[in-house]
Structure formats: C-alpha cells, structure tokens
Amino acid sequence: MNRIAIYPGSFDPVTHGHLDIVRRAAGIFDSVIVAVTDPGGKKTLFPLRERVELFGKAVRGWPRVSVQSFKGLLVDYATEKKACAIVRGLRAVSDFEYEFQMALMNRHLSKRRGSSLETVYMMPDESYTYLSSSLVKEVARLKGDIDHFVPPAVCTALKKYIK
Ligand code: PNS
C-alpha cells in the first residue's frame, strides 16, 4: 500500500522548521507531497511560483518528497492525490486552536466526499519551536541575521526582496 501524505502550507518562505517536519514525515510515509498554496485572505511576500521553487530547491534529491502547488480546497487536492493523511507541524500550544479547527473541518469535508483523511501532527525539533516564516521576514526586514533559520536560496531571495 502506497501511503501518501500531503504537507500543506503557505511557506512564505520555507524555513528549517518546515524542512524538519518534511524529513520526519518522509520517515513514516511512503511519499510526501509538499503542497504550497495561497493563505486565505493574507498577502504573501513571495509569489506562489517562487515559494514552490524555493521549497523545491531545499528538498532537491530528498527521496520520496515532491513539491507542488494547488488552488482550492485542501481535501479536494488530497483526494485527487489519493493521500491518506495531511501532515502539519505543531510548535506550541498557541498553534493548537487553529490546527484543531482545521483538522476537524477537513475531517468533516473529506467524510462528505466519502474519503477518510486523517490529520497527523508532528513536533519539530525543539530548536525550531520559536521559528516562523513571519518572524524570519521581520528579522530580515530589520537587517538581522537569518542564515540559521532558512536554506541559503531563501536567504538570498529574502535579501533581494527586502532591499
Ligand atoms: O501555512 P499556513 O498558512 O498556516 O497554511 C494554511 C493552509 C494553507 C494549510 C490552509 O489555509 C488551507 O488548507 N488552505 C486551502 C484551502 C482550504 O482547504 N481551506 C479550508 C481549511 S479547513
């Protein structure tokens, strides 16, 4: 049985915390599709195409990991890909409420479509619990050092955008 997991997010931009979750997910699923999309109602710094490109560069050569973009409902995309699970990272209690709501909404929607999609939460390494794309962008904007938090291509792209 080919157990496919979808790791969805806006990834604006990808950080080492996201990569840590992909690595963990790839260890327990047969394949992982990183699914990049636009966050509902929020503007992003990087356009969708570039967010996909940057994530793709960061996981180039990783076995059984691919990066794609999608539009529309996550459950529809996951059903189309024949995924059995959605993977999300959980850093702290503050993430919980939003994640809980999303997981139950996705469960409801997938049940209505006759599929059963589970949401699996994974904790990143503790050194990444305070890391977020928003904070990385803020630090970069204020000319702080972000090399420890993001892959080299993201570092270069952030410096270019923020100049
Ligand atoms: O990285 P983010 O911004 O926290 O990711 C949120 C994301 C993209 C996973 C969520 O907004 C999503 O699933 N969007 C796709 C549209 C959808 O299915 N919305 C209903 C979710 S319950």
What are its keywords?
alpha/beta; Rossmann fold; five-stranded parallel β-sheet; 6 helices
Helix content: 40-55%
Structural class designation: alpha/beta
CATH homologous superfamily assignment: HUPs
Number of helices: 6
Contiguous uncertain segments of 5+ residues: none
Largest sheet: 5 strands, parallel
What is the average of the pLDDT values? 96
Oligomeric state of the chains? single chain
Named CATH architecture: 3-Layer(aba) Sandwich
Number of strands: 5
Envelope shape: globular
Distance between the termini: 48 Å
CATH class: Alpha Beta
Bound molecules: 4'-phosphopantetheine
Beta percentage is: 15-25%
Order of strands across the main sheet: 3-2-1-4-5
Q: What Rg is obtained from the alpha carbons, in whole angstroms?
A: 16 Å
- CATH fold title: Rossmann fold
> What is the string of SSEs from the N terminus onward?
EHEHEHEHEHH
Number of domains: 1
Write a brief caption for the model.
The protein is of the alpha/beta class and 163 residues long. The chain contains six helices and five strands, in the order βαβαβαβαβαα. The structure holds 4'-phosphopantetheine.
Topology summary:
Elements: E1 4-9, H1 16-28, E2 31-36, H2 48-58, E3 65-69, H3 74-80, E4 85-89, H4 93-112, E5 118-122, H5 133-141, H6 152-162
Parallel strand pairs: 1-2, 1-4, 2-3, 4-5
The structure holds 4'-phosphopantetheine.
